[in-house]
């Protein structure tokens, strides 16, 4: 503890300095004349002191009376000296001198030559003030820390509210994994990306265009929302990420987008099987609501893709692009309802046993070679799964009479202009076998989609209004077998009539 002795009588000050220093707990600093005191208080701009901060100041009252300087005012104005106790030292204490000193701001009046009792009182006063100051500093520190903690809590609360809002907003348009990337990585919101090895899954509903024409917009929205909610849950559970919805289909990626896992192809195939099995619940919902029965096809392929933000600085989308995506989409387009087709690359990327059947090769636009595809019905591993209802061919019934149907080949979703008149050789509830003419310029190939019309329909305008679609699943030199993908009531009546006629 430091004590300032302020006066102009050197002998008295040195004597008191020795007594104070001798006490052991205090250190006395002598300031001769008010000018030295003024300099000590002023320090550097009033922010620091040229002498140690005192716990007690003892003034010689004769100095205060001899000069016009008012040191007590300076003590009160300096924040570092506010509240420091002040003793006045007098030559002789009387009631009148004590009252005069107290009137000038003294806390205690002592003799110029400190007695032992006065020295102890000075020590106790300085000790109490020092403890009080330390306690106040501690309180100020705690108050500052509390203020900082409250500010940090407030900022964290705001940040949490902001992130929750972003999750609610972005989460409705992106998967949760993509939202995490956007929120945690500033680079994730800029254009660009990188090449990665990934497994792609594309799923699509068969014949949904015709179904959409039978439902009003509200019913269509209800149906799709229920279907997508089930499919997204399955994809997420198998470590996949939904990239986008494609009308009545979806695109998902496994393994190399946000989760680096060697089991990406296995996850994708298991997911595809589980998705097909989940269609039972979707169709139970459709029966309850009076909606048409739904059939879904799934394609799976493994290859190199570009992963990142595609678009412009003003409008971008987190996407997966590349030939692997195009090939997967083409594989999916070759499926019929309830079927899963996977590429050789996807099968070779799995380490567990897979149940499959070769389905031949398909040609893909932009590919240098044909792609071998396989029908998937089950997969082993830690959580094996099998299709509840794998695609099975029903028995064809021969048609002895001459029954003709018109075939209009389709290019993607567009009905071609050329009609092929083919004779029906056999028919079942799911398939039809037809004999092809030898003089047609346009012939469907394996996995092509076609629109079927009764022999009375002469052009594609009439065909466009029909809901009878099929896919070529077997191709012979002079005939082919088609699997029905969508049938309207007229088509079902046609099939039932000939099945009933031959059976009856």
Explain this structure.
- With 504 residues, the protein is α+β, with helices and mostly antiparallel strands.
- The chain has three domains: 2-137, Rossmann fold (3-Layer(aba) Sandwich), CATH 3.40.50; 196-386, Alpha-Beta Plaits; 397-503, predicted glycosyltransferase like domains (Thrombin, subunit H), CATH 2.40.10.
- Helices cover 39% and strands 29% of the residues.
- It contains 14 helices and 22 strands.
- The chain has helices spanning 10-22, 33-42, 61-66, 71-77, 95-103, 116-170, 176-184, 208-214, 217-237, 264-289, 323-333, 344-348, 460-464, 489-503; strands at 2-7, 27-32, 56-60, 86-90, 108-111, 192-205, 240-246, 249-254, 296-311, 316-321, 340-343, 354-362, 371-379, 385-386, 397-398, 404-411, 414-415, 420-427, 431-435, 449-454, 469-475, 479-486.
- Strands 6, 7, 8, 9, 10, 11, 12, 13 and 14 form a nine-stranded mixed beta sheet that branches.
- Strand 9 and strand 10 form a beta hairpin.
């Amino acid at each position: 503890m430091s004590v300032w002795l302020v006066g102009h009588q050197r002998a008295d000050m040195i004597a008191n300095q020795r007594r104070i220093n001798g006490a052991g707990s205090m250190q006395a600093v002598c300031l001769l004349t008010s000018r030295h005191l003024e300099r000590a208080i002023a320090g550097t701009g009033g922010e620091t002191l040229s002498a140690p901060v005192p716990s007690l100041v003892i003034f010689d009252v004769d100095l205060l009376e001899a000069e016009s300087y008012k040191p007590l005012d300076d003590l009160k104005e300096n924040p570092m000296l506010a509240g420091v106790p002040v003793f006045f030292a007098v030559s002789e204490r009387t009631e009148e001198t004590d009252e005069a000193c107290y009137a000038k701001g003294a806390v205690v009046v002592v003799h110029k030559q400190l007695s032992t009792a006065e020295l102890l009182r000075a020590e106790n006063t300085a000790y109490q003030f020092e403890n009080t100051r330390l306690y106040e500093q501690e309180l100020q520190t705690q108050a500052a820390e509390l203020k900082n903690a409250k500010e940090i809590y407030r900022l964290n609360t705001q940040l949490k509210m902001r992130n929750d809002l972003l999750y609610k907003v972005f989460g409705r348009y992106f998967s949760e994994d993509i939202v995490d990337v956007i929120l945690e990585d500033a680079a994730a919101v800029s254009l660009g990306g990188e090449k990665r090895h990934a497994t792609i899954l594309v799923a699509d509903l068969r014949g949904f265009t015709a179904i959409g024409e039978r439902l009003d917009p509200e019913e269509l929205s209800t149906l799709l929302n229920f279907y997508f909610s089930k499919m997204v849950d399955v994809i997420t559970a198998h470590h996949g990420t939904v990239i986008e919805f494609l009308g009545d289909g979806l695109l998902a990626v496994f393994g190399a987008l946000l989760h680096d896992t060697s089991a990406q192809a296995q996850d994708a195939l298991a997911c595809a099987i589980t998705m097909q099995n989940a269609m039972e619940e979707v169709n139970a919902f459709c029966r309850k609501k009076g909606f048409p029965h739904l059939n879904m096809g799934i394609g799976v392929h493994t290859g190199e893709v570009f992963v990142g933000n595609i678009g412009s600085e003003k409008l971008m989308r987190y996407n997966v692009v590349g030939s692997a995506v195009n090939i997967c989409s083409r594989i999916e387009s070759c499926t019929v309802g309830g079927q899963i087709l996977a590429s050789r690359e996807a099968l070779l990327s799995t380490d567990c046993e897979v149940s499959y059947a070769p389905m031949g090769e398909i040609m893909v636009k932009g590919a240098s070679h044909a792609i071998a595809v396989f029908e998937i019905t089950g997969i082993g591993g830690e959580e094996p799964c099998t299709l509840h209802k794998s695609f099975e061919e029903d028995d064809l019934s021969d048609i002895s009479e001459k029954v003709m149907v018109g075939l209009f080949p389709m290019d993607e979703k567009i009905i071609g202009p050329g009609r092929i008149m083919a004779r029906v050789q056999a028919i079942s509830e799911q398939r039809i076998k037809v004999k092809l003419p030898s003089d047609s310029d346009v012939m469907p190939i394996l996995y092509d989609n076609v629109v079927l019309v009764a022999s009375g329909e002469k052009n594609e305008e009439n065909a466009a209004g029909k809901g009878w679609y099929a896919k070529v699943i077997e191709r012979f030199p002079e005939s082919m077998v088609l699997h029905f993908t969508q049938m309207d009531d007229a088509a079902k009546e046609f099939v039932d009539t000939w099945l009933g006629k031959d059976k009856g």
